[in-house]
Amino acid sequence: MSTPSKTPAFGPLLVQLIVYALFLLAYFFLVLQFLGDWLKRVAEHDRVEYAAAALGLIVAQGIALELLTSLLLRVARRRSR
Amino acid sequence: MYFPISGLHVNPVWLMTAGFIIGILGGFFGVGGSFLAGPVLFALGVPMNYVVGTDLAHIVGKSIVAAKKHRALGNVDIKLGMLMVVGTIAGVETGAQGIQFLKRHADVDLVVALVFLVVLLGISAFVGWESWQTLKARRVGGELASSPTLTGGRLKRDESILGYVSTAIYRFNLPPMINLPVSGIERISLWVILAVAFIGGAFSGFLGGGAGYIRMPMMVYLLGVPTHVAVGTDLFEIVISAGYGTVTHALKGNVDILIALVMHTGAAVGAQIGAELTEYFHGPRIRMAFVPLPLIGAALLIYTLVTGHHFK
Question: Domain for residue A4, yes or no?
Answer without folding.
Answer: no
